Every structure is written in C-alpha cells, then in structure tokens.
Amino acid sequence: MNSNNNSNNNSNNNLNNFFNDNEDIIFHLKNMDLNRVITLKEDYFSAWEKYAWAPQNVEEALENYQHVLKIIGDIAANTVAPYADEVDKEGATFYKNEINGDGEVAYAAATARAIKALKQAELMGFSIPQKYGGLNLPKIIYTMAIEIISRADASLMNIFGLQEIADTICKFGSNEQKERLLPRFTSGEVLGAMALTEPDAGSDLQAVSLKATQDSSGISIDSSNSSGSGQWRLNGVKRFITNGCAQISLVLARSEDGSSDGRGLSLFIYERTPEMKIRRIEHKLGIHGSPTCELQFNNAPAELLGKRRFGLLKYTLYLMNSARLGVAAQAVGISEAAYREALKYAHNRIQFKKPIKSLAPIAEMLLDMSVNIAGMRSLLYETARIVDIKEGLDDRLEHHPETKADVIEDLQKYNKFASLFTPLVKLATTEMGNKICYDAIQIHGGVGYTNEFAVERLYRDIRITNIYEGTSQLQVIAAIGGIIGGVLFERLNEYESKFIALESQTESEAGSEIGSEAFSAMAEMFETARSMRTSLELAVAHVKSYSESKNISKAFTSVNTAISELGINSNSNSNFSFLDYHSRRLCDMGVDILISYLLILDALKSKTKKKVAEVFINKALYKVRTNLEYIKL
Amino acid sequence: MCLKIIVTVKQVPDTHNITGDAMKADGTVNRALLPAIFNPEDLNALEEALKIKENIRVGTSASASITVVTMGPPKAVEVLKESLYRGVDDVVLVSDSKFAGADTLATSYVLSLAIKKLGHFDLIICGRQAIDGDTAQVGPQLAEKLNINQITNVEEILEITNGSAATTATTTATTTFKVKRATENGYEILKSKFPLLLTVTATANSPRPASAKKVMIYKNFSIKESELSYLSNAADTKEDKHNECKVWNVNDIGADINLCGVSGSPTKVKSIQNVVLTVSESKQIANTNENICELVRELTREHILS
C-alpha cells in the first residue's frame, strides 16, 4: 500500500477494498435471508416515491447495500488503514483554548481526514430514515460497516460507530426533536457521544449522580409528564466518555431528587455550550485515535429525551444494546486485521529453511483464528438480523398499531432473542478477539512485541472491547437468564427445523454445491451439535436443581472456602450462588453451540464453510463436555 | 446569479496497474485487459469544482452549478456516473463513432463545441493531463478555441473575489480568481477574470469518495437508446430522471466531420518502439570515501546527477 499516493485513489479501482477482498462478508451478504429485515426497515417500501435514494424492492435494497459497503471498503482500505499507525502514535490530543483556557480535543490529523471522507460519502446517517436525510440501512449492514472500519483502524469505529446516539433520538425523541436534530446528524454537521459513566458509576449505572434540575418552579407534579416548563440544567462529572467532545451528547442524569436507583434517572439531549468543560482526556493502552473525555457540567442547559425516569431502564438499555453490537463488530474487525497480519507474516518469515506457516503449531494457530473469525461473524450477523427484525416489528407496531395482532407474538419472541444474543455475541467476539490478537503476536515472535508491526497495536486496541459497553462479566449476567430460561433452546429448535427443511430441499436439488455424500457428513455434524445441546441441557438442569442441602459440589465447595481462607473475601455472608459460579461456563457453552449450529447452516451453502464447521465443531465438542464435567464435579 | 462551472473528464485505461500483456504486439494499448478508470487528475479537477461549489453559497443554497463533459465511447458513461456520485449537477456524454481516433486537436475541437452548446459558463476545470496520453494539451487547446484565459498546473485556488459582494453574485463579470500555479522551479500566484480555464494537478487535493446516497440514486444511470426511450412506457418518472444520460453526437454539436476523429487529427504515429525493461546487473560499491566519490563522478558523467 502506498501511503503517499492517496490522491490517486480511485473508487473504481477494486485492488484495495476491505469489502471486496473479504469473501466471508460477501458470502453472508449473498446468502443471508434479509427479505423480512428489508421489508420491515423500508416499511414496505413506502418511502420509495418520495425519496430518490429509497429502494423500490428487496432486490434494489440489496444492490444499495453492496454499493454502500464498497464505498466503506474503499475508504477503509485507502483513507483509513494506511494511517492507522500514524493515528496510534499521534493520538487524539487535549489542549487549552487560547482565548478562554477551556479544554478542547483535537483528533489526530488522519482521524480528521477519515471523518471528513465519511461525511462526504454521506455515511453518517446510516440507519436514520430517509425523511431526515438518512440512508435507512438496517443494523446488519451497519454491523458489517463497523467491522470493515474497525479492521482499518479500531479507534475510528468509536467515532463512526456512535450513530446509536442519533438512532436513540430517532426512536425516543419527540417529532420536534427529530426534525430539529436528526438532519444535523445525517448531514455530518454534528457527531454524538453518550455520557453515561461517572467516577463512581461504571458497571453500576444505577449509582449515577450527575444532577438534572429544572430552573423554574414549573416542575410538573406528574413525573411522567415530560412537558415541565422549566429549563433543565445538568451539574456533575462524567468520566470515560468516548468522543465526549462531540457537539451533541446523551447524558444520563438523576432528575428525581432523593431517588437512589435507576428509576430516578432520565436521559438528556445536551448540545455543547460553555457550561460544559472538558477537563482532560485519558491516556489509554489502545484506541489512541478515540478521545476519552472527562466532562464537567456546570449548570449546563439540556433537554429531556422521552419521559422522565425512563432514562436508564429504557433508553440507556436500548442505547447500550446497540453499542454492544457495535463493539462486537469492532472486535471481529480487529480480529480480521490481526489474522491477516499473522498470515502474511507466517508466509514471509523463513525459519528452519521454510515459511513458518508450514510448522504445525503455527498452522494450527492460523487455522483456529480463521475458523473462529468465521464462527464469530456468523453469530454477529445472526444477532444483527435478530435485532433488525425486533426493531422492525417494534417500528411497525408503533406506526401501524392496527397490525398489532400480526406482530405482537413475533415481537415478543425476537425481543427475547435479541436480549440473549446481544450480550452473548459481545462476550464471545471480544474474548475471542483478545485470544486472536494474542496469537497473532505469538506468530510474529519477538518483532510482534515491537511497534514496528501492526499486531502490537491491534493487541492493545482489542483489549478495551471486553471492558467497555459492559465488561464480559456483565454480559454473562445479562445473558444467563436466557440460557437458564430456555430462550437459547427455543432458538436452537428453529435452527433444527431449518436444517431438516434444508436437508430435504438439498437432497432434491441435483445441482446443489453440496452433494449427497457431503450431506451425510453434514448430518453427522448436526448430530454432534445436537449432542452438545444435550450437554448444555444437562448442565442447566444440574444448576437449576442444585441446592446445597441436597447436592454437594466438590469444586464449588472448595472455591467458596478458598476464597475466604486465602483472604480474597473473608465475609462469609457474601458467598455467591452455584449459578453465579457457573454462569460464565454456561454462556461459553451456549456460544459454542450457537456457533456450531450457525456454521452448519452456513455449510449447507458452501464447501469452505463445511470445512470451517468441521474444525470448529470438533473443538467445541470437547470444550462443551469439559464444561459440563466441571459443573457436575 | 450562479457560477457556472464545467469540468472535462476522461475515461482512461489504468496504466498505473500495467501487467505484462498490457501492450499488444503492434504496440497499442490492450484496452480490454486494463480496467477503465476515471483519469486521476480529472478527479482532482472535479474535486476543485466541488470545493468551489461548497464554498460559494448565497444564503443556504449553493450558488454554483457543475456540469461534467466527457468525449468517449458509450462506456465512458461510467465516469459521468462517478461524477454524479460526487455531487455534480449535470453531465453530458459527447459520443459518436466519427470522434474515434481523435488526437488532442480533434478532441479539443469537439469539446469546445459541446461547451458552446451548453451556453454561458464562467469556469472550466480540466485535469492537467490524462495518464494514457500524458500530453497535457487538451486543456490549453480548449481555452484557445474558446478564446478565454487559461492557467495551467494549478495547485491551489487561493481566492475567489466577487466584484460586488459574495452574497449577491448577480454578475460574474467582475469576479476574479486567484490561484497558485506550479512551475518547474517553484510556484507563481496568478489572478484572472472569468471566463477562465484551469488545469489542476494531483497535488491540489484528495478527491472525495462517492456519496452513498447519490450512488443509490444514480446507480442505474446509463445511456438509453433514444428510439427505445420513446417506445418505453415511462411509468417510473423517478427512474428516468436519474437513469438517462444525455448523449450528443456529431450533429448535436454541429461539428465539421473533417475536423473530428482520425480525419481531424494531424498527429501521426511514425513508429513504435517496444522497450523491454530488464533488471541490469548490479554493482557493489564498497563503503569507502574513495568508492563513493567515484560513484558520484560516474553518475555526473552519465548526467544522472548534475
């Protein structure tokens, strides 16, 4: 890649394009069933006559998606990736405004250029409806776009990928707010930030203490009435705010005096004024291009979004679930970059008179990386599709209440699936991403530990993904209910029926890529996957029936006593439950099984995927069994 | 009222990505093998036009319009499409089999007629040169034919001053243009009145990417056989508006066929030499002052260093 030659980059030159060169993304785009997603997102193509860029039908929408991803792939490969190292070294910087001494943030030069290109490409209103000037693209395409951008420079995702702010305003704002604010987002005039975390409220957002008060005495008695007359004002400190220098933020604040939990919190739309000071930015291990700000609000004017008291429980939950999907995509993008770097290095590096990729331990690491990325991607896109259907049904119900009878059952179902899949995919992709970057350095050996190779940066960049937008440990808490409660098995049932339907369909199709011989191998894989499911069912049953009076778990008992005796926590009252102890393992089992099922379904459409599925499932089988054995110990 | 800008562009074979089979045995370019791309410096010309349009505004609406003109075969509609993707207002394809084989003289003749047909204009922006011919002649010839000022090798547009005020650009006659022009030894700053032709170099800017929204709108933009378009039952007005490319042939622009294409092109290829570049022997120079001085002397003798 010639970094000096960017002025000659040409959009019809496909040599460098992070979409065109990614067969797996193209495979999914081609093979995923997006009919329902598109029809719902386009509200049965009702915008077509009004807006020149709105699609007329599913085929045209799919064509549009390809075009958009090509533009992103071009920008990622030519305007972003060649400068990722430069951005990492320069970083976003904090400086004092010469006139008033206020803190300001400057993006790295290459970050600023990339943002400009993304704005010029009109990609900053990705999922906002056409009527506000947006592209109205579904989450699945947004997810792919974030992945492509993150592969080029993970830190740029934290700016490009903050479009959830506009989405949240679009979903919960008043018509007046939407008409006033959304066109400013879609045109790229403003960027967004979400100001949730505080020094003493990280994972525990219920502890948020930044105060929101209303100026005049016109505070409405009825707290659910959002039309209180006085100007809202914010006072307090927010910390770890990604892109906190953005013009418009959503700020979580305590609006109900005297309250102490999540029900006293509301979400506010805040536009930059001198009453908000940026105190400093963090010096972080990675994602240096993304400014992480500490903000001080001094009587800063703000407006309420939606209803009071719904800030955390409804709006922030929506916002964070969208952001979690984004972070999962970011992790897959970084993993893809790390894998490509490792593969390239293992190909070029000669030791013992041969390229090191021909050595068994290196080859296996590379294979695992490749297979795991494919698996993660299947889970990621499946989750995005589920979220799309859920959002689509939700919008349908809101805009066409008369369809309630047709919609409500599916909506409830997809709500459940989305609440399970979102934390699971974030857990899985970010943890796996860390492992992949770790191995990518291992393959590079000593030079991988130096900043001369990209893997060093990737290893630092990936490290935040399993921390922010909820740590892996919090994702487990969010997902475990769906595993214990059977939502996971409900979805697996659907995959099983789909497999059986496709099985009979494929058998009758002579021209299918998968021959009948190969199909019996697939049936075998399917049986293996089903046996993993049985293991998880046994594990869940065991955990559910466990009670200390009846069962005694050697492992659990020894852990509990050791925690106290080794001085980690001597307060015997705070013992955790058997379920708490095994939640992570149950989630890991769930992820392995889900990916196995999804890869089998992919394998019905491609021979390469069949290989991927085989390798993944064999390894997953033993992990699942080991987890079950430990739980039963 | 509105600054009228014309940008001339060309579709060229991608000579930056040449492979072994790029030349045919007779020494001509094997166009089928090379991808056809937007001539790089024409993208720079387009970008300058788009920047001007963004910066000159009356109130909230743009007060410049951009029309892109290209001469080429029907396939050249692709570069017009790319121009629409980036935000131009109108495009014209000047295409006729009689234009084939044109050298720079015949090309600038045809382009000048097409531009005259477009009517009033203030500014023409061309790329400095095309990567297939590398002549850098079409821009200057076009200015001569239209009898307007020209400034070549522009690296930066410094100022657009309006005779009256920027907000009431009712007349462009008093508007002047200040640019930085690259010369062999540095640069010079020049001022000119409209109408004016500029040729722009690659260092002027970084061309913007295509706009996703505009790609969605114009993705089916193509040439329609005019006869067929009369026959088609135009139910989709939206489709037609964004799909149909204006094509002007030799009659549309009132060209003299003797001045077009091969017959209008005095340039004749006398002979073609095939140059095969091979890696020559390498020479080891020991790292001593004596050897290095000898190398410098040798390079000076060969006029590689002066």
Q: Which oligomeric state applies? A: heterodimer
Quickly give the structural class of chain A. alpha+beta
What integer value in Å does the Rg of chain B equal?
23 Å
Spatial strand sequence of the major β-sheet of chain B: 11-10-9-12-8-1-6-7-13
Count of individual helical segments of chain A: 19
Major sheet size, sense and barrel closure of chain A: 7 strands, mixed
How many β-strand runs of chain A? 11
Greatest interface (CB-CB under 8 A), with counts per chain: A-B, 30 and 32 residues
Distance between the termini of chain B: 54 Å
Question: How does the overall form of chain A come out from the CA principal axes?
Answer: globular
Helix content of chain B: 25-40%
- Strand-pairing-aware structural class of chain B: alpha/beta
Report the principal-axis shape of chain B.
globular
* Count of DSSP H/I helices of chain B: 8
Q: What's the alpha carbon Rg of chain A, rounded to whole Å?
A: 25 Å
Describe the main β-sheet of chain B briefly. Answer: 9 strands, mixed
Order of helices and strands of chain A: HHHHEEHHHHHEEEEEEEHEEHHHHHHHHH
Q: Can you characterise this structure?
A:
The complex is a heterodimer of chains A (633) and B (306). With 633 residues, chain A is of the alpha+beta class. In chain A, 56% of the residues lie in helices and 10% in strands. Chain A has helices spanning 23-31, 35-41, 58-80, 84-90, 109-120, 139-152, 154-160, 164-172, 175-186, 311-348, 360-399, 404-444, 454-462, 472-484, 487-508, 516-545, 554-565, 578-603, 607-632, and strands at residues 93-96, 103-106, 192-195, 211-214, 232-242, 248-254, 265-271, 276-281, 292-304, 350-351, 354-355. In chain A, helix 3 (58-80) packs parallel to helix 6. The longest helix of chain A is centred in the last third of the chain and has 41 residues, at 404-444. The model of chain B is unreliable at 164-173 and 227-238 (pLDDT under 50). With 306 residues, chain B is of the alpha/beta class. In chain B, helix 2 packs across helix 5 and helix 3 crosses helix 4. Helices cover 27% and strands 23% of the residues of chain B. Classes of the chains: A alpha+beta (633), B alpha/beta (306).
